[in-house]
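So, could you explain this one?
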Amino acid sequence: MGINFSNQNEGVTMFKKLISIILIVSLQSVLVADDYNAGGDFTLDYSLNGHGDVNFSQFTALGAQSVLAGMDFDGDSLYEILFSIDETLAPGGPDPGKLGVFLYEADGNGGYNHVWHFVTPQPGNSLPGMFHADIDGDGLHEIYFGVPPAVGYNDATWGTYIFEQNADLTFPSTATLLYQYGMTSADNFRPAGYEVSDLDGDGIKELCTVDRGVRRLSIDEPPSAGFDNLSTFTSEYLDTLDLNGGSVYNLDAADFDGDGKHELWVNTWNNFSMTVFEATGTDAYSVESKMDQLYDAGDAASFRRNGFAFYDADGDMDLDAWFPMTDGKLYYLENTVSFTLDDLSLDTNLVTNGGLESGTTGWDFFPSPMTNMALMSTGDTLLPPVVTSTMDTTSTGADTTLYDTSAAVLFTAHAGTAALKVSGAGGNSTENNAFHAFADANAIAPGTQFAISAEFLHSSVDSFSTLGSHGTLFAKYFAPGWAWLGMESVDFQSSATADAWHHLDKLCTVPAGATVVQVGVMFTAPDSSSTSGSFYVDDLILQAADSLGVDFLAADNFTEVLTFGSRNRGSDMGDIDGDGKMDLIATTGTGETVVRMEFMGGDPASASSYEVTTIFESKGEPADRYYPLDISDNDLDGDGNLEVVLTNLYASNATQPQIFVLDYDKFVFDTGGDNPDQGLNENWSVAAVSYGVDVDSTFYTESNNSRTVIGGMDMDNDGAKEVIATDYAGNRVVVFEYNATATPPAFDVVWSAPITTSHYYSSPRTVAVGDLDDDGRHEIVFPVANDDAEGYHIYEWDGITGSDNYGTTFSAVCQVEVDTCCAGDGAGTASYGSSFRGRHDRITIFDLDGDGRDELCIGIRDGAPKGTIIVSLDSTSNLVSGSEGGFEIWNTEFFVNRSDYGGGSPLHNLPADLDGDGHYELVQHTWNAFHFYNLTSTGADAYSAPAVGNPSGWYKATAGAGDQYSIFGGNAHDIDGDGNDEAYFASYGSWGRGSGDVYVVDYSPGDSVLVVNGDHVKRIASNIGQFIGDVGTGYDGSDRNSLFVGRTVPNITALEYIGPDPRSPSSYLKKVLWTGEHDVVNTTITIDSTGAADTVYASSPWGFPSKIETDWGDELLDFDMDGKKELLVSFQSIDDSLSTTVKTWNDSLADFVSVVTKVANHKDWTFAILENSTPQLKSFDPVRFILPDDYRLDQNYPNPFNPNTTIQYTIPINRKVSIKVYNITGQLVRTLVDNEMANAGTHKVVWNGKNNFGRNVSTGIYLYSLEWAGMKKVKRMTLVK
């Protein structure tokens, strides 16, 4: 099977493109390891295998142990990867062994070149630390490499090796400094992790090192004159008591409590223990929080090796943190460090004369001198409003305003006898400021927390404006040169009670870089209409605060969010795809997978807020072990996305790389038109297609055809597989059969149901095959809203092998659903069945109760009551092909009303053995917030349902997240081989919410299937497909199961089950199989006033796969029996034509003039078959679906005739045909060709006017027909004597 091209030249061009691609891939194959699985929109772009490389020749075993990526040490815009090699932990490696650190640089073409490395001269202990920084601020980077001591081996060469760049920005071959912390090898100080940060705010960065040997923390200050002049560090702090329990690997500096000072967080591998240190002064530190053994199960710890994942996850302007732990669980730390001034210990007041008892001494003003302000004293009169006003022009400065003094109010200070009156400034956006300044000798150090407070009053006799003016208590911050850094403030307005003092306070922190702090009050008038009035202030106070900060931390601040694997040995955080949503990438250790957890917003403590996908998996044997990874600081390859760089500790085998570079490579349709013509995975091909343009009457009347296609059955027992498609708009069903003997092989149309007249839009939507009467003859069943026979039309095979004959009229019509929901005034009346629409997108025919006879399981969507009905044909009834039936007895085995179980429009009844007990359940899915409940069979014609009224019997998976639903239902399969089925459903979404999310319904041993809740219904993938497909196995040579889902872009995605838990998103490896056919585009070209093409915009009218089928009756699809697995895919919404719109600017009209041209869509596919293990390389046509119009019966000649006439016919493939002559009443007169094999092409046969008995027939009109496989074409001819 192969690919179709519209013409030969196009085929040659495509072939050349493909050959070019092959050559490029073959040239790059040396960069990529074989058999490693990337998924989840990631590709394996590069792998480094040091086996046989001279740079790694000193090692007897290879294992990468830590990595940092995305630096540009030499400033050439080519980014580097820094990693360590530890042969002590690699399989077969010596202990102690050699340790090394390596630097590689991107070459700009997808590869990486060796730049520099260092290997220890003597063997050392395992797990060396690694870091980079510019600790002395000289613009030259340092690489830090911690070599643990191995007594008797490296007594003189253990310690932290520091390599500082040379002036030419290269790194030296020997260390600039070997720092041993004032210890000897006997002290067993093993440098396992580093942080470089100015912890104590003295302007000098400290080197912080954790020791995993005896669990110590060393904080050391570098030489002030740089490495070139001094030879060692100065120890500021050495903690030997507070890192309890297991080994120490990870530390990080962060200002978690927002006090302006960085804490140093250190994690100990001891049931998740955390110690937090903070500077108490220059070169002085203390333990602020010590949390020992927060979780005593699983011995969890952080093994990131380079920091923690601090991030403001909940958007409340403080840091939170994520901890992917060694037990494979993600923990979240919510920052609840919040406190009031009452919680703090405050020092003495630093404001002198804040109560103005000494006048304005110590106060500054803006504008200066003091304007619109006045000192007030207790006993001063506050004058009431003006009555009249005159001005004495002879007495300069005299106030001759006349006041009403009958209600004078006396002023009283808050404390003491003095206060300050602050009045409106006048003008727009102006302020009056009164403040104390702290600078120079009395400056307040950055990071200092302090409290400011003051007392405020406004008087009832003052018109303090409510039009936007307000008083403010503030702290303002300035850098040198009066550069503005910001302000913290709290407002006072006239809404407060008049004539009473009001206390205002504010907790503040001096920001980094501040050299001047102003603390005071101001009157702010936003415009000239709000400048009147005054307020009064007293007792301005500033007190330094001792922060409680991380002292508040406790175990209950940490939340277990989700499980992403069985174990973990490394993680990192970053926004890989640049969408503003933080990604957590974690390894799963010997589980040999890498998981991405993208935080989608919402509650960080809820698992539902994360999209979890597995993005990488090893080949399995020999075993890899993924150790700490790194999300690159910068885009390594220039594609706009960050990379994930992964280390492999168990890389001793010659086939195992030590470093992997994973690139985010999600396909996004480019509206600029730069898309691949075809987005099919390289190991798949389009093997067969059905074109809508081939026959308008069958599949071309609308773009929604065909709504359902099923295939893989052999209904007439001739060994050839059929495909059945609904002609949705044509109101019928069509059967195709694969003809391997045809030249070329083809799918030939062999039967078509009579066209029905529907009173509801288009039907049938769906079709199914079963054996309802258990006679060994298959029936084709579909619901139609037929005007005369509403219900399920049943067409039974006639039992003749190879006949493909299912009758020219139905065998029976099952009207049990109509009788239940839509009977109206009864059978035979005009209202009977009028509300039956037949709008089912899935129907189920299955032996649900194990009695040997199929049941018809129906979800009633229309009329009333709505619900589920299980119907079977009575054992005394038998279906007869083409009989029209009418005497069958249909038994209702069970009925449930959907209203008893949470409501919703029934969409699918999915058979599945959820608990593996041999009794099938019907998973009920209704349109009501992704709603589920189950029925279960208990014996022949016997079923159980949840107790009515018991809310545990049904579950709405998206309650509160939109009225989501799975429009075409689900599929069931025992994907993990544990003996019970899993049921999969994809969400069509609700106004975009949840669209493309995939859910599994799964039960554990002992669970009641009549109970359903959030433990059973789990989202396993987000935004990958709205249409659930099927589960199959054996693709790409793997024996794993894959679940296929469909959507517009990409068209088909596979979720390969890698285990171990079907309910865990990380148990599936997402692989895009087909992005779609992107040469099917509508194009808009805009030409500007200069005549240049200003913009080109492409939109894709390519549709979506609404159904994907992998098997029939547990037999995987393989129509041509070549051993290659196939998928049957039906499409909807593919347009029949493609348009090009040219919009040209017209100066006279001052507008664009549009010209639209259309061409036929060369890929107007109705359905297609995709074949695995067949690269799409050749230019021959795919297998065609032969339709009735491909068979041609010409008009006889001569006509009229006497006695001879020639009948000419054309057939598209080699096949058996008949040519027959009938009289006008339909009686057979003569068989000219009797089911004889004929080659593809045009044939002629002569009729001599005689019947089958050799007698001449009379004058008249006769019918002649071309007949094949149950199909017939007929024309008229006239015999004249």
